[in-house]
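May I ask you for just one protein sequence along with its backbone structure tokens in two labelled lines?

_____
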Amino acid sequence: MAFDLDSLLNDGKKIYVKNTSRPMGHIVLTFVTAHGKSVPRNIPRTWIPICLTDTLSPDIIAQSNELRQFLNKGILALVDPETAQSELRGEDAQEESERLNISDFSSKATATERVLSLENQYTAEANPLNQQGPEGMVDPVNNRVKSTLLRVEAKDLTEREAVAEFRIMEKELSSHDLTYIISSIGEDGPLKRFAFQILSAHQAAVDTDVVNDEAETEDPALVEAARKDQQV
């Protein structure tokens, strides 16, 4: 069933949104009260739905042009309230919610020089002004993947915390990234299982595309000839 912001508000439903920015980052929405006071609302870098009506009144949400712009641009996406509540009851979502409540999560441990170097390299490679020379070979593995795995190795992150981080950037993970994660993790834990699951989904999508491409390239004349042979 189709729904939009106004229909949800008119029906008295809770308003849930998902952070769909790419690459995903923290978003701060500014709402304005009837008295002209600005109220910032943080939308964290996470894959779970965030409920706006838990902290904001429906009237304030309805008057927010900024929220509507973010929805129209695809930076945020509305989530059906029943779907959101069902998703939030899941074990993974509850762990992610707990993670978000730990304000010092990202700085819980001191990053090593190697991790910082990788993060700086990732930032440099993301800059379109920095062009790779013809003699250089581009590493297909995302440096954010490498730095996260280094933090797991250094015991700065648990595997479950790393899964939460990779789930946030799931749409950015390539098959190279997932294979690298699998080969870097020795034990069959939550991180390896997550990587196998996403890699299997990638492969299934590729297989579907191949089948569709083959179907589209069938010669109509051959198909018609085969049909006539069957009739004979």
Summary: Confidence is low (pLDDT under 50) at residues 103-117, 122-137.
